[in-house]
Structure formats: C-alpha cells, structure tokens
Amino acid sequence: MPARPKKSRARTHAPVRKPAPVSRSQGRKVYMVTGGVTKFAKAHPSMDFRLMVKRAYDYALKGIPNLTADRIDGTRISYFSDHFTRQLKAASMVQDYLGMNPKGSIRLEWGGATGGECFQAAYEAVASGRMDVCLGAGFETMSRVATWKGNEFIALASDTNFDFPLGGFYTGYYALMVIRHIYEYLRLGRFANVKDEREAQRLAIAEGSRIMSLVSVKNHLNALHNPYAQYPKRLTVDDVLNSEMISYPLTREQICTMSDGAATVVLCTEERAKEFTDRPIRVIGVGTGTDTMRLADRPFGKVPLMPHERPRDYADLRYPGVHSFRAGRAAGIEAYRMAGITNPNSQLDFIELHDAYASSEIQTYEDLGLCKYGEGYSFVERGDPFLKDIDYGFPVPRAGAIPVNPSGGLIACGHPVGATGLMQAVFAFWQLQGTVAKHFGDPALQLDHPKRGAIHSHAGTGSAVTVSILERGFR
Amino acid sequence: MTARPAVFSKFRDAQAELERSGAVLFRDADGVESLIIRFPYAINYIHSYAEDSPFFLGLAEGRLRGSKCRKPKCGFVYATPRSHCMVCGAPTEWIDLPPKGRLHSWTTCHFGSEAFLKETPYNLGMVEFDGVGSLLLVRLKDAVESDLYVGMPVEARFDPNPKYSITDVWFVPSR
Predict the structure, then answer these.
(1) How far is residue A203 from each of residues A175, A209, A234, measured CA to CA in Å?
(2) In this complex, is the C-beta atom of B74 within 8 Å of any C-beta atom belonging to chain A?
(3) At what angle do helices A147-155 and A170-182 cross, to 10 degrees?
(4) Cα separation of B166 and B139, whole Å?
(5) Which of A435, A470, B151, B166 is deepest in the core (most CB within 10 A)?
(6) What's the angle, vertex CA A373, arms to CA A172 and CA A403, rounded to 5?
(7) Which residues of A touch B124 (CB under 8 A)?
C-alpha cells in the first residue's frame, strides 16, 4: 500500500478517522456451505416469523445429508423491529421452533443492515473458534401494520427529538441525500455551464431521475428470472418516472417495498465444509462502517481513499456531507483490505448491494469504488452494472462489466429487513456455486463462472453498513 | 359450579362471531386458513428532552440555538445542538444561530408516516449557516416544490403557540 500522504494528516474541524486496522489474526478460515430463502411477499398470512425461518432453514439443510441439526453448534438470529413483530424476544421463539435449545444464540439488530450484521456475527462465531458450525437466520414480518404505519416504525430509527417529528419518513431523508448528490455531481458536473442556477438544477434533477430509472428498470427486469422476488416486472424508464411521486424526486418504482420473508445461512470451518459440500464458498473479507444517526451531523471532510484512488481525485470534494455514505466507504475499505482486493472492478465479478432506493444504488457504486465519486451516473449509462444477456429496452454498451444486483436487489426482491442481508448472501452463494439454475428454476441470472462477489447491507441514511466478500472455494 | 355464560351460545355461528370481533379467516392459494385478528396498541411515552431541553425551550422564546465546543483548540459549531462535541469529546455551550441560512438540500414529501399523512405535501430542508459546521433539518413553508433550489436563502419562523417540538421552528424563503 502506498504511504499516506502527509497532507491528509492536517488538522481539520471535520472528524477524519483512519480506517480501522485489520487484525493480523484473522482467525480460522470460514466457509458458507448452504442457505435458504422464503419467497419475499407483501404478506404471508399463513406463516408467522417462526414458520418462515423454519422453511428457509429446512431448504438450507435439504440435500446435505451430513448437515443435521445436531451438527450446528449455535445460532445468530436477526430481525429489525420489535414494533413490526409485536413480539419481543422473537429470536428466542425462532431458536426454540428450530429445536436449537440449549445451544448458544445472539440476537442482532442494526437497522437496515441487520441481516448483514447477522452474517458477520455468524462469521465471527466460526472465525474466533467459538463454533465450528453456525446458523445465521433472519426474518421480518412487516405486513402486520399498514404501509404508512410501517413507515412510522421505520422512521423511529431516526432521531426522535430532531428528525422524526418533521415527517417521520425515510424516503424523505434519502430524497434530501439524492438532491444533494445530483447537485454535487450533475449540476456541478455535466450542467456546470448552464448559467441560470435554477434552470441548471432543474435539468440536473431531470437527468438524475432518468438515470435512477435505468437502475429501477434493471433490477425489476433481472428479477423476472428470480422466483423469490416480490415485484419482478418489465418497466420502461417512463413507467418509472411516471409512477407516483413519493418524495421528490423519488418515485414509487425507485423505492423498495415492505415485505414478509426469512433467510438462513450456514457458516463453518474448512474441515466441516469438506464434510458438507464439494462446492463451499469462502468468506474472505468482512467490513463494517458507521456514521451519524442524524444526516444534519455528517461532516465535510476528506474522502477515505481506496488503493486505486489518489488524493487529487477528490481535491475539492467535501465529504461525505449528505451526498454519500461514509459508512459504506469504511466498510468497503476494511473488507477489501482483508480480502486483498486493490481494484474492486477487476477483482469482483458481481455485487449484491442494498438498493433500498435507486439513488442509494448509484451512491453505493461510488462508496464501494466501482467508479470514482461523481461517476455513478455515467457508470449506469455506460451499462457496467447491467447483465449481458438481458434486453433492458435501451442500450447498455458495457453490460456485464460488473453486474450489480443480478438477483433484482431490494427494489424488486423486497426488503424484509432482518432477512435482507442474508438473502443477499444466499443469492451470492448460489451465484458462486453455479447453482442459480437449480434454485431459481431458470438459468438466466447465472453468471459465467464467477469467482468472487460482494454483499452489502445498509442501515438508515447510511448510519451503518456491512460489506462481506465471498469467494469460490473449489475448482 | 357456575352456569355456562350465555355469550358462549354465540359461538354456534362462527362466521357471525368472526365478523362481530373484526377478525377474518384468510384462505390462501393452497387452501391454508389463517385466523387474523385486530390488536390495537397505543402508548403515551414520558419522553424527556434531557440535555437537548434548552433547544426546545429556546424555540418557545423564538430563539434558534446551536452549540459550540468549549475547547478553544476545537471550537466546532453545531447547528443541530449536542451537549458534547463529536470531534473532540469536550462539553459544548449554547449559542444563537444566525437568523438566516441557505438550503443545502431539500425535498417535498407527498407521503409520510401515518402520523404525518394529513400534512402532505410538506417540504423538508437542510439548512446551512455561515460559520457553522453542521446542518439543521427543518420544515420549509411558504414555498412549493418548484420554488425550491440548493443555495436558496431561507430564514426562521417560530410558532407563537409552541408545542415543544422541532416543528415549533420552520424556515421560509428570505425576502
């Protein structure tokens, strides 16, 4: 790694923290050997959270004769909101429904990143030597209240003194972020020469909205081949732009929905992995990052750089402000370092990332270093995150360069919060195993021998993000 | 032994009983029946603003207060107040924010959570102030979606009948 330039050590009012050092002792090698997902749906009235998890658990164990309940040393169980479940300690009820007592268990909650945290908690249980085989299970039942009450519950994950009473609406917070993102990178970018300020901003927002719609079309269309997805559909850019305005400029089709669903993963040591499968997938990197709960408190400092970036790339950028997710950047840096990734574009074959909003998918490309800050919109237009063999209805010249959300992502699959990060792990696992056709009953989304993929889970306005890197562990 | 309550006789008509209680029997595509009931849940929290209290008391007096780190070497100024500095950890002191600022970002919400649906559409704005290191999230009034832009000069207004909420202050376009 190049030495840190002295300039960046200069005192600044904005807190600039060095990325967390990666422990020299990374513990034992950890493998994912199986996973399961329920179909994500608006509502599963005939299954409560215990039965959903049980279904995803049974699916995971099916076809692996050596992997029986007695081989599992303990669990990590995640769900986001006790409000939604109307059952506190619901993780205990999952534990006993699965017949796991008296084995050890920990419940995880970290807003929208709950599932991603659960995956990493299961990873740590194995890496640390505490368990040889750990089950990670997550769920959410969001159908138990009306959509707008659900939005209220979610918004209680914003500061209840200063933020919630203004409208209690997460889509509003992400709209504030994307308006600034568009200002920084489109108004001051491709519309820099427009003299009239308000006209320039109007043009920039229209351009940003159009490009966000390309992302929405991509994810909904990919999901047509994913039987687990909640809202697979063929849309045009105009369909997306003309769908209901929710919080300007975000329209309904640019936003994920609430869901009922569950997902499970089984992580274990190398020795156990050999007993369970001849297609194990190794977890080669984990990273987490955080940021202030209140958007208003985000600093205006310097960009923490990835190995393939230079300080001059961002000489004038005040970071993260409210336009980017510093937590995502920190999580990416930590995970990439651990995995030995110096250029994600060439070393990753795909990414399943947390596209709760089409805007946050574009912001996340930049956080994860798939393109530089400011290049997210062109990255979409060039087609890099699209799949090669799918007709999106518009040209995608570089399709297949680095597919993002080949499964359809949150926008099309749904977002049962505590399950979402684990769902990404399961989809990434099937990709790397080469078993998408078997599990989806459709080969369309299977990439050609992917070697390495990343999953990315994200909590409220980027207040917490996890990134995990998975790699094929067989020839 | 007491007599069987008369109410039990109603159970002979299960469907009528379901309807009376507001419950429904849902049958899914596989023919699985699920009994769905209503479960009302209301609560009044005893919520203390604690160390943030002077901010909300200030709004009732028409004062918009931020906070400033007491450590001279740091001196970070917060638009959204906090009692300890996030940069250096030192205690902060209360300051008055400038009466006017600029929009750092904005949106118009056409929906909101249930409690706020009746107020839609409403505008949110993040306000930046000269000499202040962080932002303040507020409601924007006297402006519609097409009026708003990044950099727009705005100024504070206060509710003469304070509710002791962040909505006691809002911003309007500066004239």
Answers:
(1) 17, 10, 27
(2) yes
(3) 70
(4) 9
(5) A470
(6) 85
(7) 166-167, 172, 175-176
Cα radius of gyration rounded to whole Å, chain B: 26
User: Using the beta-carbon criterion (under 8 Å), do B114 and A151 form an inter-chain contact?
Assistant: yes
Task: Quick: pLDDT tens for A51-97.
Answer: 999 999 999 999 899 999 999 999 999 999 999 998 999 999 999 99
Helix (H) or strand (E) holding A214: helix A197-222
Tell whether the model's pLDDT for residue A25 goes beyond 90: no
Mean pLDDT, range A276-287, rounded to an integer: 98
Per-domain residue ranges of chain B: 11-36, 51-173
Q: Is A367 left (phi over 0), alpha (psi -120 to 50) or beta?
A: alpha
Nearest to B86 among A163, A166, A297 (CB): A297
d(CA A220, CA A370): 21
User: B115 and A168: CB-CB below 8 Å?
Assistant: yes
Size of interface A-B (CB pairs under 8 A): 150
Contacts of A324 (CB under 8 A, 6+ apart): A181, A363, A366, A367, A373, A462
Confidence of residue A17 (pLDDT cuts 50, 70, 90): low
For A437-454, write each residue's pLDDT tens digit.
999 999 999 999 999 999
* Cα separation, A449 vs A451, whole angstroms: 6
Cα gap A71→A7, rounded to integer Å = 53
Q: What is the mean pLDDT of chain A?
A: 95
How many other CB atoms are found less than 10 A from the CB of residue A160?
14
The whole-angstrom distance between A324's CA and the closest CA on chain B is: 13
* Chain centroid, CA A21 distance in Å: 23
